[in-house]
Amino acid sequence: MSEMPFDAAAARPPRLADRIAAFLAVLGSLILLAAAIAATLSVGLRLTVNGQVRGDFEILSVGSGLAILLFFPYCQSNRAHVVIGIFTDGLPRSIRDPLDALWSVVLAVSAALLCWRLWLGMIETFENNDVTAMLQIPLGLVSVAALLGVAGTAWLAALDVLALFRPRNIA
Asked: Which of 168, 17, 18 is nearest to 97 (CA)?
């Protein structure tokens, strides 16, 4: 009989971090929906009246990039990141759990490093008043939203590392 893998998300009650992750995912969905509407409207205008939505490429690129980063905490909250278990699915739980913990540590550290670099970049974009070329979207504000997604991922990965090392009953 195959052992079920330890699921940190299922082993704990919903927490504030999970609710924040869900909120960020909804925010990312709304941003992506707005970008998709702008792109669709732009294509429709090109086909019908030879017009377009000004800055459609910027809206789509900034919107989709932000949406992806805002989805990451929700993926971590639900342990829904892409996992390739071809080599580990057959291993006993006593080996898989430490491997899961290791990869959660790698994700938490990587996301924390990205937070640090995004923070520095955000400060620089605010200091320089950097904006996008067509629509003059302030890149500092874009950096703030990106930082929320990466920081949420780091936070949830760190909580999952703690959950993987917490003693539990194995039935």
From this structure: 168
